[in-house]
Write a structure and sequence with these properties.
Four copies of one chain form a homotetramer. Chain A has about 220 residues and is mostly helical. Chain A has twelve helices and no strands. Helices cover about 70% and strands about 0% of the residues of chain A. In chain A, helix 1 packs antiparallel against helix 2. Chain A starts with 6 loop residues before the first helix and ends with a helix. Chain A binds a DNA duplex (21 and 21 nucleotides) through helix 4. Chains A, B, C, D: It holds the Pfam family TetR_N.
DNA sequence: CATGAATGAGATTTCATTCAT
DNA sequence: CATGAATGAAATCTCATTCAT
């Protein structure tokens, strides 16, 4: 029946073995239902049904509905932040003579894939974190420990190599993060106005970031 | 007691006179509670209490809780989208010899003010629109009729004036929208990483958009 | 239909007027059901039904089931402990030349009436207090402030009047309380072995306490 | 680790050999949990855990939770009622010239030891018997067959020996039972008001019962 | 015979909505 | 037209009991 699995689902299926099959099914169902309806609008009954387990079983694993929300953070870390951490420590693998243009395009396309692959999980966690300070703290911590340092290191290296003007690392970091976020959000929310065409748009985005729009 | 009112509250207080006083109080309370807790987590009882009316009265004006959400769209339009429309038709007021740099800075600072002034309303409507297609359609329509045309017109004029390289209007539009959105979201969500300092950051943002980061 | 009301029910019906009729019905139903089945075995659905209200209404007044248990303490105080307090302050009304025998018989018969009148409430509160320290503390405090002092004062007066041998007030107090408690519990639990016949038994009890059983 | 065992636990450990080791562990755990929390508030899961067996095993031995409660009656009989029966038939062991005072003190101290030794079991069974008629019947039957006859025989003998005034055996029995019960309950429930000091208090209790309080 | 994951019936709790006053 | 007590449908949570392994 179900042949195609999302990256998120694959991540959960490949999780630690002290996570039972039923638990995995519950997590997958939770992502599906919650990313479609939001945390509060998702019914434990519906999640249980989608997971093919009884509501009692759902309770066995997650005594409070909120626990189910919090349980989605580890898979998110595994699927979204782990690759970033991994990449940070295997930087040496990158082509030594990589140009700035190449680096930026690589940054956008890899990060975009991560966003795409974790759409559902990210949607739940980010949106709910707006109202749950604990979740927000977790996300802030993760970003501060993974994405921001890796991004800033790249920028500093390029400044050292004199490929980038001497300017505030934070400013450049903000510009790049804004473009990534903006591209992702705008093309999701206004697909007619901003259709998605990654190759073309990343190219133009990078070109403008590098050379500006001024004639 | 309460002397300082938010722009949103001022907007509602100045609304049409066929909106009764009680109704206005309810809307103001709804914005406060819903922007703090989200639509679903907000209790009609709490909104009524905050508004200083009975729950019965609340339901006289808004028979369904959802009606209360939809009722927030008009104030949002009045306060956020109306100024943009107005500005579009009063373009003549702008200094004729306005430079590209000035135009961009003006765009960012005016739009940022609008975002700040309508934080609460925007938060509610945007976040809820993710789960309510009707709301999403409304927002898409409003953006398509106001923000996007005004932005694109500015870009086209600047291209015609040859201040901007010959390039896709949509691409430039996306870049600018991304920066605006990114600046706003990132400094709200990661205030430590990306502290807010509008004058300085708008300046640098515009500089990079104009000239790029390449040395 | 229902003509005879228990003293407990009368107490609740005569409670403060800021207690609504529905709330009173709920409390009466709670006493009936809980004294019959115990707190945990009592179903909120059954209490609501017995009270003639919806479960929603029950929740309006007592958000947690436990609140309903704790709400029974005030009526108990009113009905059981208030008379004792009142009596303490109207001691002067007692016949001045009251004999020891008369005092003891009066003590047993009045206290026994109180126990009888508050059977249900006492049963709930006492039995549940065994497992809820908060309740136990309340009962201990009430006894320490009302029953014990009034009892000890009577004993001391009788010792001063040299009607009672010079002996520990606590010991006499314990003897009297034990008889009261024992008479009440034993005749409830073993009605065949210890049938209840207040006039006769109080007489004999007092006689033995006064003169002993030794020939 | 655990060196000190309660009398109840010793009783269970020494029970009949057609009671398996696991069963004994379950019973001991049941006493611990149930005497702490009460029957209904005790979770089968918690009892199983405390007993070091699986819930499945618990239900193999006691298919219904209530069976676990009823299974506590035999140990109670063994530990509490058996000694009383035994004593009844070994009356000859008592010193022939035992005085009334001695007999009473012996009665109180031996019964008090039994109560202390079986605190937990008694608490569970007595409290639950209030809501379970079957249990209440059992307790009534046991008391009627053991405690009451032994007590009444002692009283009758003392009346025959003319150590006690000619009076109703039941009345004297009730007085003695009340004092025993009262001493035990009051010093458990109000340890501050009625501190426990067996030697001293039994002495004074017996003295009053024998000679009264009248000067 | 032991296990403990899974169950589901039923308990409590929630809260938008109604309606008599 | 305003009130807020009352509602009940639906949600979450509980836990004794079952049963495949």
């Amino acid at each position: 029946m179900e042949i195609v699995k999302t990256v998120e689902e694959e991540t959960i299926i490949n999780m630690d073995d002290n996570v039972s099959d039923k638990e995995k099914k519950i997590l997958i169902a939770a992502i599906r239902i919650m990313s479609e309806k939001g945390f509060r609008a998702s019914r434990t009954s519906e999640i249980a049904k989608e997971a093919g387990v009884s509501e009692g079983t759902l309770f066995r694993y997650y005594p409070k509905k909120k626990d189910l929300l919090l349980a989605l953070l580890p898979p998110l870390i595994l699927s979204f932040f782990q690759p970033i951490i991994t990449e940070m420590f295997s930087k040496s693998n990158a082509p030594k003579s990589s140009t700035l243009k190449y680096e930026l395009k690589h940054f956008f396309s890899t990060r975009l894939s991560l966003l795409d692959d974790n759409k559902g999980l990210l949607k739940i966690i980010i949106l709910e974190s707006i109202y749950y300070p604990e979740l927000q703290k977790s996300i802030q911590k993760l970003m501060t420990e993974t994405v921001f340092p890796s991004l800033e290191q790249m920028i500093m290296e390029q400044i050292e190599k004199k490929h980038i003007k001497k300017m505030s690392v934070t400013t450049v970091s903000r510009i790049l993060m804004s473009q990534l976020l903006g591209y992702f959000i705008l093309s999701s929310y206004f697909p007619d106005q901003y259709p998605r065409d990654d190759d073309k748009e990343i190219n133009e985005m990078v070109d403008i970031i590098l050379n500006g729009i001024k004639r």
